[in-house]
Amino acid sequence: MSYLDKLLEGVVVKWKPLANNENGVAELSRGRVMSKEYFLENAGEYPVYSSQTANNGEIGKIRTFDYDGETLTWTTDGANAGTIFYRTGKFSITNVCGLIKIKDSEELNYKFLFYWLSIEAKKHVYSGMGNPKLMSHQMEKIQIPIPPLEVQKEIVRILDTFTELTAELTTELTTELTARKKQYNYYRDELLSFDGLNEDLGSVSESGFTGFKDSQDLRSKVEWKSLGEVCLTTNNIRWKDNDNTYRYIDLTSVSRDNNSIIETAEINAINAPSRAQKIVLENDVIFATTRPTQQRLCLIDDKYSGQIASTGYCVLRAKCKDILPKWIFFHLTSTNFKNYVEENQSGSAYPAISDAKVKEFKIPLPSLEEQERIVSILDKFDTLTTSISEGLPKEIVLRKKQYEYYRNRLLDFS
After folding, report:
1. Domain end: 146, 174, 208, which one?
2. Range of the domain at 304
3. pLDDT 10s digits, 372-381
């Protein structure tokens, strides 16, 4: 017998609609429109919540409040539609938020209702016309289980404890992940720096970077060339009389997390988008020039050799055997290149950097042997960082799934 079965042994669980008739357990209302000017003119101490989920949904503070006490709110519009928040104290909400006020607190516990709606509300979101919505007329129909109040409070106690433990662990893991990424980004930039430092390259072990060693000016005397000087001009596809089928690498095809291609579409001369123009080959480095600070780049492997990339990518193909494709790739991941992109992009809504500007970026060209040595270290960096990047986020996801599993089991009244 499960713990919930024991809690519910011999008791009756009633079901009532949230609010759609006199039997409903709560009253629903909406917030009000507030302009930017209103926030500026009425700045104060009381929070205003809107449709976002960052910062607990808060978008600003004003000097008055519309609500005071224990309530729930939900997001009615947009990507976060159906998100439920537990609120206390003095606050206001905008027109893209709904408010839930329980009629009888001796019948239904706010936290219990919060946990239940956190599961159920998303199921009722309507995604028609490209804008997800959960309006009051949909929300009010959700059926609410009502076990005895003491059972509700016990379930809330368990879930509050579990929520706190999960949040603490998630924070620890996220902090660890951030620290590790900063560490490896720092050492990557050091390894790629040829600015006159007279230090030998260190080494990488499974525990991380072991530091630099003294040497006699191994890194300072190198030749610097632009990417345009070391890369070939690539070809565009001629769709006329072309009967072949290709994989199309769009701007969203490249993962920013691990610099790999995650999904492509099948195209031919009939259905190819107008931007499907650039032929890529194995060992080409592609960098997204639209919204470039998002850093979508990857090194093409043999699986995608001969396929088609969007004109939104700059394709960098090493001109000769004196430069490693991975040498180009790692320089495009560097902080130096990121800063260069930020300084040379243009546009506000959809910032972009031209192919020509990308190819003006200069990189050092040590000997091939030196490139191979540094690339070998950076490959180990990449493996370590990837294992950390996969391991810690995966652990975070698993903890959240574990929490959701037990929450759903605890709230299973079927």
Report:
1. 146
2. 223-364
3. 999 998 887 7
